[in-house]
From TrEMBL:
This is Uncharacterized protein (DUF58 family). InterPro entries: DUF58. Residues 201-277 form the DUF58 domain. It comes from Paramicrobacterium agarici. Keywords: Membrane, Transmembrane, Transmembrane helix. Residues 175-196 are annotated as: Disordered. The chain crosses the membrane at residues 12-29, 35-53. Coiled coil: none annotated. It comes from the Bacteria.
Length: 391
C-alpha cells in the first residue's frame, strides 16, 4: 500500500518564500520586526503541515472492477465512497492504476455530498494494453489544512485484482477448417470393445427408418434391431506457441492465438492450448475462458520436445485435427514437421515483422506472416486467400 505524502501547495510555497525573503531583508537591514514576521510565517507553514498530516479521513471506499477485460477494451471502474464522519478537509482523489492502463485518474472530491453518512460514486474509464494480472488501487484522497497551505495524500481502502485477457480480433469466415474437420461434428470411430457393433444396436421402435436396421444383430437376437445413433463429439483444435520468453512480438502471437481460439470455438471446436510441453488446457466451445486465461498469463516458451509433443497428440486425439503453430522463426517449421503430419490442416503464423517467404515454408505447413498486433485479422485473410489460390 502506498505511503502517505505531504507537500506544500502554491499558497504554502508563497508563505515559505515570503518568510525566507523577509528574513534575509531583516538581517540585511537590521530590522527586528522583520524577524518576527518571518518567524510567524514559518510557524504558520509548519502548523499547517502538522494539521494536514494528522487530519482524519473517515471514509470507506469500495471499488467495482470487472474480473477480466480484453486488451484494448474500455473498462469502467466505479469507486463507491461513504463518509463515516465530517470529511470537509478532503479536497481531491486519485486511484492508482498500472501504466499500461493509461494516465492516473484523478479529480476533485465533492464536499457537499460527503457530510456525515453521505455517499458518492466516482466513475472513470481505462484502456489496458498489456495482458496479465494487475492490481488496481489503492484509492488515495488528498487532505488539506484550513488555510490550504499544505496537502497530504493517503490511501483509503484496498486494491482490486483484475485479469487483462489478450486482444481478440474478428476473423473472417473460412471453409478451411470446415473442409478439414468434415463438418461441425465428428463420429467417434475408435471402438472401445471387441464387439462394438453390438453396443450400438437396440430394439426396433415404430417410426425407425428401415435403412437403420442392423441385420447382423437382428439375426443374432432373433428380433428386429436397429443401429443406435453413433456417438459424436465436438471436433478438436490445438494451439501451439513456440516463442522464447522476451521476444518483442510475443504479444502479437498471443493475440493471434486468442483470436483463433474464439474463432474456432464459435465454429463448434473444442480448443486445447499447450502452455508447455507437458501442461495443456482444454476449453469447451461454449466457454473458451480457460484458454484465454492461460494465454493471458503465458510467459513464453519454445517447443523443445517436438517428438514428445507429437506422440502426445497421437495419443490424445483419435483423428487428425487442425493444429495452429505460432512462432517467430520460419526455420522452426521444419523441426516441427513431426507435429504437422498429424494435423489436418497444419497452419502456422510466423511473426517476422515483415512478409513471409513461402518458398521457405516446408510441406505440409500452410503459413503466413504476422507483422504486429494490429495485423491479426489481415494475416488470417492472407492465409485464406493463399489457400483459396492453391485450390
Amino acid at each position: 500500500m502506498s505511503a502517505r505524502t505531504l507537500r506544500l501547495t502554491r499558497r504554502g510555497w508563497a508563505l515559505a518564500w515570503a518568510s525566507a525573503v523577509i528574513l534575509v531583508l531583516a538581517v540585511l537591514l537590521t530590522r527586528r520586526e522583520g524577524l518576527f514576521i518571518a518567524s510567524f510565517l514559518a510557524i504558520v507553514v509548519v502548523l499547517c503541515a502538522l494539521v494536514a498530516s494528522r487530519q482524519r479521513v473517515p471514509l470507506h471506499v469500495g471499488r467495482r472492477v470487472p474480473s477480466d477485460a480484453h486488451c484494448g477494451d474500455r473498462v469502467d471502474i466505479v469507486c463507491e465512497i461513504q463518509a463515516a464522519g465530517s470529511s470537509s478537509a478532503v479536497t481531491g482523489w486519485t486511484d492508482a492504476v498500472p501504466r499500461s492502463f493509461g494516465s492516473t485518474p484523478h479529480g476533485v472530491m465533492p464536499p457537499q455530498r460527503l457530510a456525515r453518512g453521505g455517499r458518492t460514486a466516482i466513475r472513470y474509464a481505462v484502456v489496458p494494453s498489456v495482458r496479465g494480472w494487475y492490481d488496481v488501487g489503492p484509492f488515495q484522497v488528498t487532505v488539506s489544512d484550513p488555510l490550504g497551505a499544505c496537502e497530504s495524500s493517503r490511501p483509503v481502502g484496498e486494491t482490486s485484482r483484475m485479469l487483462v485477457l489478450p486482444r481478440v480480433s474478428p476473423l473472417a469466415p473460412s471453409d478451411l477448417l470446415a473442409s478439414a474437420g468434415e463438418g461441425r461434428r465428428r463420429d467417434r470411430t475408435r471402438p472401445t470393445a471387441p464387439r462394438a457393433d453390438e453396443l450400438i444396436a437396440r430394439d426396433y421402435r415404430p417410426g425407425d427408418p428401415l435403412r437403420r436396421v442392423h441385420w447382423r444383430a437382428t439375426a443374432r437376437h432373433g428380433q428386429l434391431m436397429v443401429r443406435q445413433e453413433e456417438p459424436q463429439a465436438d471436433p478438436e483444435a490445438l494451439l501451439l506457441l513456440d516463442v522464447a520468453p522476451g521476444q518483442k512480438r510475443i504479444d502479437a502471437l498471443v493475440d493471434m492465438a486468442a483470436s483463433l481460439a474464439v474463432h474456432v470455438a464459435g465454429m463448434g471446436y473444442r480448443v486445447t492450448f499447450a502452455e508447455s510441453d507437458s501442461s495443456w488446457v482444454t476449453a469447451q466451445p461454449s466457454d473458451i475462458r480457460d484458454v484465454l486465461t492461460a494465454l493471458a498469463v503465458w510467459p513464453g516458451g519454445a517447443l523443445d520436445a517436438e517428438r514428445e509433443v507429437a506422440l502426445r497428440i497421437e495419443q490424445r486425439f483419435s483423428d487428425s485435427i487442425p493444429i495452429f503453430v505460432l512462432t517467430t522463426d520460419a526455420d522452426r517449421l521444419a523441426a516441427l514437421n513431426a507435429i504437422a503430419v498429424r494435423a489436418a490442416p497444419a497452419i502456422a503464423f510466423v511473426a517476422t515483422g515483415s512478409g513471409l517467404d513461402q518458398d521457405a515454408v516446408p510441406a505440409p505447413w500452410i503459413a503466413t506472416g504476422l507483422a504486429d498486433r494490429v495485423d491479426v485479422s489481415a494475416s488470417w485473410e492472407r492465409l485464406h486467400r493463399s489457400v483459396a489460390h492453391v485450390r
